[in-house]
Amino acid sequence: MTTAALILALVALLAAFLAMRRVSSLEERLERANSTVFELRGALNEMQEQMSQQVAELRLNLRQQSGEAIFRPNMTIAEALAVHPRVNEVLASFHLGGCSHCAVSDVDTIEGACQTYGIDQRGLMAALNAIAGGGTAGPVKVPNVKLEL
Fold first, then answer.
1. Prediction pTM value
2. CB distance 106 to 76 below 8 Å
């Protein structure tokens, strides 16, 4: 009886050892698969960003070719940011979105942000449309803007 129990215990130990080796092998495969998924996700995110930039450029070109106004006062900040990569620079030059006093939300309209923060809407629209018209050289010119903080 003792011999049978000993043999059974050895078989159980051998089965546990083999199961542990199999688990280790599966853990290694899972780690490699996770690493591959992580790399693919990074590549996909990069491609998605590139596609978004290309779509924004195509929209800008289409608006320019059709003679449509590129920037409109009722456009949201998010829409304006999607139109041209230098919009953020123009907004910052008008002190919109650069500090805690004037944190502009992406859902705010250009017109609403100008009214809220006392920004010259015509000047901002002129600066935005200047970059859309191809004015990419040099810093953005800011008209005399009176800030009230």
1. 0.50
2. yes
